[in-house]
Specification:
Layout: E1 5-10, E2 16-22, E3 28-34, E4 40-46, E5 49-50, E6 56-57, E7 63-69, E8 74-80, E9 88-92, E10 100-102, E11 108-110, H1 143-149, E12 154-157, E13 164-168, E14 174-181, E15 189-196, E16 202-205, E17 210-214, E18 217-222, E19 225-232, E20 235-244
Antiparallel strand pairs: 1-2, 2-3, 3-4, 5-7, 6-7, 7-8, 8-9, 10-11, 12-13, 13-14, 14-15, 15-16, 17-18, 18-19, 19-20
Length: 263
Protein backbone atom coordinates (compact mmCIF):
# COMPACT_ATOMS: atom_id res chain seq x y z
CA UNK A 1 0.00 0.00 0.00
CA UNK A 2 1.28 3.45 -0.90
CA UNK A 3 2.28 5.47 2.16
CA UNK A 4 0.42 8.74 2.73
CA UNK A 5 2.14 11.92 1.63
CA UNK A 6 3.04 14.45 4.32
CA UNK A 7 3.52 18.19 4.10
CA UNK A 8 4.60 20.01 7.27
CA UNK A 9 4.26 23.74 7.99
CA UNK A 10 6.11 24.81 11.15
CA UNK A 11 4.83 27.79 13.10
CA UNK A 12 7.28 30.69 13.09
CA UNK A 13 6.72 31.69 16.69
CA UNK A 14 6.34 28.44 18.64
CA UNK A 15 7.23 24.73 18.69
CA UNK A 16 4.14 23.46 16.86
CA UNK A 17 3.57 22.56 13.21
CA UNK A 18 0.66 21.84 10.90
CA UNK A 19 0.79 18.43 9.22
CA UNK A 20 -1.24 17.83 6.06
CA UNK A 21 -1.63 14.09 5.48
CA UNK A 22 -2.77 13.20 1.97
CA UNK A 23 -4.04 9.78 0.92
CA UNK A 24 -5.81 7.87 -0.40
CA UNK A 25 -6.76 9.93 -3.46
CA UNK A 26 -8.86 13.01 -2.70
CA UNK A 27 -8.61 12.64 1.06
CA UNK A 28 -6.52 14.88 3.29
CA UNK A 29 -6.31 15.28 7.06
CA UNK A 30 -5.05 18.27 9.03
CA UNK A 31 -3.19 17.74 12.31
CA UNK A 32 -1.17 19.74 14.82
CA UNK A 33 2.18 18.32 15.89
CA UNK A 34 4.02 19.42 19.01
CA UNK A 35 7.63 19.23 17.85
CA UNK A 36 8.99 19.12 21.42
CA UNK A 37 7.12 16.10 22.74
CA UNK A 38 5.92 14.37 19.57
CA UNK A 39 2.20 14.63 20.38
CA UNK A 40 0.02 14.77 17.24
CA UNK A 41 -3.60 15.96 17.41
CA UNK A 42 -6.08 15.31 14.61
CA UNK A 43 -8.24 18.15 13.38
CA UNK A 44 -10.47 17.15 10.48
CA UNK A 45 -10.54 15.28 7.20
CA UNK A 46 -11.46 16.75 3.83
CA UNK A 47 -12.70 14.91 0.75
CA UNK A 48 -10.69 16.94 -1.72
CA UNK A 49 -7.22 18.41 -1.83
CA UNK A 50 -5.25 21.13 -0.05
CA UNK A 51 -2.69 23.13 -2.00
CA UNK A 52 0.22 23.13 0.41
CA UNK A 53 2.31 25.89 -1.17
CA UNK A 54 -0.50 28.40 -0.61
CA UNK A 55 -1.39 27.33 2.93
CA UNK A 56 0.08 28.46 6.25
CA UNK A 57 -0.02 28.20 10.05
CA UNK A 58 -0.06 31.30 12.23
CA UNK A 59 3.06 32.03 14.33
CA UNK A 60 1.24 31.03 17.53
CA UNK A 61 -0.27 27.92 15.85
CA UNK A 62 -3.80 29.03 16.75
CA UNK A 63 -5.05 29.69 13.22
CA UNK A 64 -4.40 28.45 9.72
CA UNK A 65 -5.22 29.42 6.16
CA UNK A 66 -5.58 26.84 3.40
CA UNK A 67 -6.41 26.80 -0.27
CA UNK A 68 -8.51 23.72 -0.99
CA UNK A 69 -10.65 22.24 -3.74
CA UNK A 70 -12.60 19.21 -4.86
CA UNK A 71 -12.28 19.43 -8.65
CA UNK A 72 -15.51 21.36 -9.07
CA UNK A 73 -14.71 24.45 -7.03
CA UNK A 74 -11.96 25.91 -4.91
CA UNK A 75 -11.83 28.04 -1.78
CA UNK A 76 -9.58 29.85 0.67
CA UNK A 77 -10.49 29.11 4.28
CA UNK A 78 -9.29 30.63 7.54
CA UNK A 79 -9.87 28.38 10.55
CA UNK A 80 -8.68 27.48 14.03
CA UNK A 81 -5.82 25.02 13.77
CA UNK A 82 -5.94 22.12 13.21
CA UNK A 83 -9.60 22.27 12.19
CA UNK A 84 -10.72 22.80 8.59
CA UNK A 85 -14.12 24.29 9.44
CA UNK A 86 -13.91 27.82 8.06
CA UNK A 87 -14.35 30.98 10.11
CA UNK A 88 -13.97 32.92 6.87
CA UNK A 89 -14.17 31.55 3.34
CA UNK A 90 -13.54 32.92 -0.13
CA UNK A 91 -14.89 30.72 -2.94
CA UNK A 92 -13.54 30.91 -6.50
CA UNK A 93 -14.23 29.19 -9.82
CA UNK A 94 -10.67 28.05 -10.53
CA UNK A 95 -7.36 27.19 -8.86
CA UNK A 96 -5.58 30.38 -9.96
CA UNK A 97 -4.05 32.16 -6.94
CA UNK A 98 -6.01 31.69 -3.69
CA UNK A 99 -4.78 30.74 -0.25
CA UNK A 100 -2.52 32.99 1.76
CA UNK A 101 -0.02 33.29 4.57
CA UNK A 102 0.66 34.82 7.97
CA UNK A 103 3.27 37.49 8.52
CA UNK A 104 5.81 36.94 11.31
CA UNK A 105 3.64 39.30 13.40
CA UNK A 106 0.59 37.08 12.84
CA UNK A 107 -1.32 39.21 10.35
CA UNK A 108 -3.36 37.35 7.73
CA UNK A 109 -2.54 37.88 4.04
CA UNK A 110 -4.52 36.73 0.99
CA UNK A 111 -2.84 35.51 -2.20
CA UNK A 112 -4.24 37.19 -5.31
CA UNK A 113 -6.83 39.21 -3.40
CA UNK A 114 -7.30 42.42 -1.49
CA UNK A 115 -6.89 42.36 2.31
CA UNK A 116 -9.85 41.18 4.38
CA UNK A 117 -11.94 44.08 5.62
CA UNK A 118 -13.06 42.20 8.74
CA UNK A 119 -10.80 39.24 9.59
CA UNK A 120 -12.36 36.63 11.90
CA UNK A 121 -11.49 35.59 15.43
CA UNK A 122 -9.46 38.66 16.38
CA UNK A 123 -7.03 38.35 13.47
CA UNK A 124 -5.66 41.43 11.72
CA UNK A 125 -5.16 41.88 7.99
CA UNK A 126 -1.74 42.30 6.42
CA UNK A 127 -0.97 44.79 3.68
CA UNK A 128 -1.62 43.58 0.14
CA UNK A 129 2.14 43.57 -0.59
CA UNK A 130 3.20 41.71 2.57
CA UNK A 131 4.11 38.72 0.37
CA UNK A 132 4.55 38.31 -3.39
CA UNK A 133 1.41 36.96 -5.06
CA UNK A 134 1.80 33.70 -7.01
CA UNK A 135 -0.56 31.54 -9.04
CA UNK A 136 0.44 28.29 -7.31
CA UNK A 137 2.90 29.47 -4.69
CA UNK A 138 5.92 29.45 -7.03
CA UNK A 139 4.73 30.45 -10.52
CA UNK A 140 4.63 34.16 -11.42
CA UNK A 141 5.70 35.15 -7.92
CA UNK A 142 7.80 33.80 -5.07
CA UNK A 143 5.18 33.37 -2.34
CA UNK A 144 6.46 30.03 -1.06
CA UNK A 145 10.07 31.19 -1.23
CA UNK A 146 9.17 34.21 0.92
CA UNK A 147 7.29 32.01 3.40
CA UNK A 148 10.34 29.77 3.72
CA UNK A 149 12.58 32.82 4.07
CA UNK A 150 10.52 33.82 7.10
CA UNK A 151 11.43 30.39 8.54
CA UNK A 152 15.16 30.92 8.16
CA UNK A 153 15.80 29.39 4.74
CA UNK A 154 18.17 31.22 2.38
CA UNK A 155 17.23 31.54 -1.29
CA UNK A 156 20.52 30.36 -2.79
CA UNK A 157 19.77 30.47 -6.51
CA UNK A 158 17.15 30.03 -9.22
CA UNK A 159 13.57 31.23 -9.41
CA UNK A 160 10.11 29.70 -9.32
CA UNK A 161 10.27 25.90 -9.84
CA UNK A 162 14.06 26.11 -10.32
CA UNK A 163 14.78 27.77 -6.97
CA UNK A 164 17.09 26.21 -4.39
CA UNK A 165 16.86 26.99 -0.68
CA UNK A 166 19.50 26.27 1.97
CA UNK A 167 19.48 26.03 5.76
CA UNK A 168 22.46 25.31 8.06
CA UNK A 169 22.69 22.26 10.31
CA UNK A 170 25.10 21.46 13.14
CA UNK A 171 28.81 20.80 12.52
CA UNK A 172 28.98 22.59 9.18
CA UNK A 173 26.30 20.52 7.46
CA UNK A 174 23.52 22.02 5.36
CA UNK A 175 20.12 20.86 4.14
CA UNK A 176 18.98 22.03 0.71
CA UNK A 177 15.53 22.16 -0.86
CA UNK A 178 14.47 22.36 -4.49
CA UNK A 179 11.26 21.48 -6.32
CA UNK A 180 10.04 18.91 -8.84
CA UNK A 181 6.91 18.93 -11.01
CA UNK A 182 4.71 15.91 -11.73
CA UNK A 183 6.76 13.21 -10.01
CA UNK A 184 5.20 9.75 -9.55
CA UNK A 185 3.38 9.25 -6.22
CA UNK A 186 3.90 12.91 -5.32
CA UNK A 187 1.78 16.06 -5.54
CA UNK A 188 1.96 18.18 -8.70
CA UNK A 189 4.67 20.25 -6.97
CA UNK A 190 6.89 18.36 -4.54
CA UNK A 191 9.91 19.06 -2.35
CA UNK A 192 13.31 17.50 -3.01
CA UNK A 193 15.96 17.57 -0.28
CA UNK A 194 19.66 16.89 0.00
CA UNK A 195 22.21 16.89 2.81
CA UNK A 196 25.47 18.69 2.12
CA UNK A 197 28.45 17.63 4.21
CA UNK A 198 30.92 20.20 5.56
CA UNK A 199 33.38 19.22 2.80
CA UNK A 200 30.77 19.91 0.12
CA UNK A 201 29.75 16.31 -0.59
CA UNK A 202 26.07 16.30 -1.54
CA UNK A 203 23.76 13.46 -0.44
CA UNK A 204 20.34 13.54 -2.18
CA UNK A 205 17.41 12.33 -0.07
CA UNK A 206 14.77 11.43 -2.68
CA UNK A 207 12.31 9.95 -0.18
CA UNK A 208 12.14 13.01 2.09
CA UNK A 209 8.99 15.13 1.82
CA UNK A 210 9.91 17.68 4.47
CA UNK A 211 12.91 18.47 6.67
CA UNK A 212 13.83 21.14 9.23
CA UNK A 213 16.75 21.51 11.66
CA UNK A 214 15.88 20.63 15.26
CA UNK A 215 17.86 20.11 18.47
CA UNK A 216 21.26 19.53 16.87
CA UNK A 217 19.83 17.31 14.14
CA UNK A 218 16.78 17.51 11.98
CA UNK A 219 13.18 16.39 11.87
CA UNK A 220 11.94 14.96 8.59
CA UNK A 221 8.97 13.32 6.88
CA UNK A 222 9.32 10.17 4.80
CA UNK A 223 7.42 6.92 4.23
CA UNK A 224 4.25 8.28 5.86
CA UNK A 225 5.95 9.11 9.17
CA UNK A 226 7.88 11.81 11.03
CA UNK A 227 11.46 11.10 12.10
CA UNK A 228 14.36 12.65 14.00
CA UNK A 229 17.95 12.07 12.93
CA UNK A 230 21.44 13.52 13.17
CA UNK A 231 23.80 13.79 10.21
CA UNK A 232 26.95 11.71 10.56
CA UNK A 233 30.01 11.28 8.38
CA UNK A 234 28.26 9.07 5.84
CA UNK A 235 24.66 10.22 6.23
CA UNK A 236 22.01 10.04 8.91
CA UNK A 237 22.65 8.57 12.35
CA UNK A 238 20.48 7.99 15.43
CA UNK A 239 17.33 7.79 13.30
CA UNK A 240 14.20 7.58 15.46
CA UNK A 241 10.56 7.54 14.41
CA UNK A 242 8.41 10.23 16.00
CA UNK A 243 4.94 9.43 14.64
CA UNK A 244 3.50 7.11 11.98
CA UNK A 245 0.46 8.31 9.99
CA UNK A 246 -0.09 5.19 7.87
CA UNK A 247 -2.85 3.64 9.97
CA UNK A 248 -5.22 6.60 9.76
CA UNK A 249 -8.61 6.32 8.05
CA UNK A 250 -11.14 8.95 6.98
CA UNK A 251 -13.32 10.07 9.87
CA UNK A 252 -16.01 12.73 9.42
CA UNK A 253 -15.80 14.67 12.67
CA UNK A 254 -17.14 18.13 13.54
CA UNK A 255 -15.06 21.05 14.74
CA UNK A 256 -15.60 22.24 18.32
CA UNK A 257 -16.90 25.58 17.02
CA UNK A 258 -19.42 26.88 14.49
CA UNK A 259 -18.11 27.81 11.08
CA UNK A 260 -19.45 29.48 7.97
CA UNK A 261 -20.94 27.74 4.95
CA UNK A 262 -18.73 27.75 1.87
CA UNK A 263 -21.63 27.23 -0.58
Amino acid sequence: MTAPRLHVIPAIGCHKALVLRRGPTDQVASLIWDRRNGVVTLGQWLKGGIYEYRSDLSPDARHMIVFAGNGARWWTAISRAPWLTALSVRVQADAWHGGGAFTPEGRIWLNGAEPLSDPPDGLRAAQVDAYPHATDGLHMGGLYLAMMGARGWTHANGDAYHAELVKPLANGWQVTLHFEIGQKNRALISNRYALVRSDGVRMPQPDWEWAEPWDGGLQLARDGALWFAKPGKDGLEEVARIYDFKGMRFDARPAPYAGVNRS
